[in-house]
Amino acid sequence: MDAEVTDSAGTPPGPDDRGGQEHHAALPVEPKVTAEGDAPPSAGGGTKGKRHWLRWTALGVSVVLLAGAATTWWFYRKLDANITPDTEAAAELETYEKERPVQVAQDAKNLLLLGSDSRRGKGNSKYGRDDGGSQRADTAILLHLAADRQSATAVSIPRDLMVKIPSCRTPDGGRSEERLGQFNSAFERGGAACTIRTVEKMTGVRIDHHMVVDFSGFKEMVDAVDGVEVCLKEPVDDPAAHLELPAGRQTLDGEQALGYVRARKSIGDGSDTERMSRQQQFLGSLVKKVQSDGVLLNPAKLYPVLDAATKSLTTDPGLASLKDLYDLTRSLRSIPTERVQFLTVPRQPWAANANRDELVEPEASRLFRQLREDLPITVRPPGSKTDGSKTDGPKGDDTKSGDPKAGDAQRDTAGSRSPDVAGSHRSKAPTNPSGAPGSSPSGEPSASTSPSYSGTNAAVNVCE
User: Fold this and answer.
1) Which of 112, 208, 245, 312 has the fewest CB atoms inside 10 Å of its own CB, making it the most exposed?
2) How many CB atoms lie under 10 A from the CB of residue 36?
3) Where are the beta strands (DSSP E) in 325-448?
4) Model's pTM, two decimal places?
């Protein structure tokens, strides 16, 4: 008999292969588990197809995320590169660091916002001749951000205010002499650094940061938020300001807004006081538009605003990055609009020339002290019963000469102007040992008392 033949090498036949032996039922076979713990693929390869689909999905998500990150990085770099750092101003301020005021309220911030009237740059020539780059601060606002970031106070500084302007580095590399002059000529003489030092000597307030925006930047900011609402009591037709508007409620685009905030002869009484009040109301409306429209929380709306703001922005190195600017704006989101206040520094006609301004004391020193020490300031609507101020009479445009008597033929007489202050309390102007106005005055109310000034806030409806 032949030897038994195995089914395969080394494998004897099973018992059920042997003749006459009992046939046993096949035992159930456990599914084989892979190293990943998956069950073996079923007929048709469904699980394998599923894993294949998952891999492609993960790859697609990765590509989208990488593309999104790259796009975000591109936007960030673009906005960051838009900002121009003012290194010359930083170097000049560093030279005079020892004479600058010390910061009293450590967590509060003081920013000097300057609107340049330079005609340089695309689209600016229509507003006047570019006389070799000469420029003045068309608008100057000292913005105080409270340490708890629950209030912001913007103080307008009149262009015609007569102040002591220190010796400053001039554009040609020389140095100017200290002199008494119009405030806005400080920017022409020595740029932002000279203006900052002038403000610090006048107020005793330490300026932490500064920003300079030109005409183009302002227009693009307004257009980026789809315009800002204003109300006009009567129609405006001002060729000099390139402005023609009907009376009533309307939304101004960037071009119209620039003419609106710069116009002097065609709106109201033609005074600089009225013009600053109009600027404050417009800025309040802009703040309200940005907050109510969700711009700060919506990237699609925020990017155009940031792009417009940064393209024409010159700032100190401490704010010359998108991160620094974002950190600053993020801290402002929680400020209620009624706590974003606007006012003008107390002033009156200058004794030597009624067409120029001088500070009213002690009201101005009291205001500066409140800002330095981060103490409350109350702003009332203009014309309230406790507000004894009147606006000044019509004033012509500034000349580039800086001569205090320049333009007198175009201006009203001294009788048309009165102090722009709230209340009638007067006493000796306070001073401190460093010569800066404001600390420990004799007979003054305590610093914790909130002084009241004529002004407005961002919650006010411009059309009421």
Assistant:
1) 208
2) 6
3) 340-344, 347-350, 353-359, 378-380
4) 0.70
Q: What percent of the chain has pLDDT over 70?
A: 62
Q: At a CB cut-off of 8 Å and minimum separation 6, what does 79 contact?
A: 303, 306, 307, 310, 322
Angle ∠(433,434,436) on CA atoms, nearest 5 = 105
> What are the structure tokens assigned to 302, written together?
């925020």
Mean pLDDT (the chain) is 73
Instruction: For 453, list phi and psi in degrees, rounded to 5.
Output: -135, 150
Structure tokens at 235: 């129609």
* Residue (of 257, 237, 267, 232) closest to 247 by Cα position: 232
Whether residue 392 contacts residue 416, with contact meaning beta carbons closer than 8 Å, is answered with yes
Contact assessment for residue 368 and residue 384, using Cβ atoms and an 8 Å cutoff:
no
More confident of the two residues 416 and 354: 354
Burial label, 131 (beta-carbon count in 10 A; 0-12, 13-18, 19+):
exposed
| Cβ within 8 Å of residue 158, ≥6 positions away | 183, 272, 273, 276, 344, 345, 347, 357
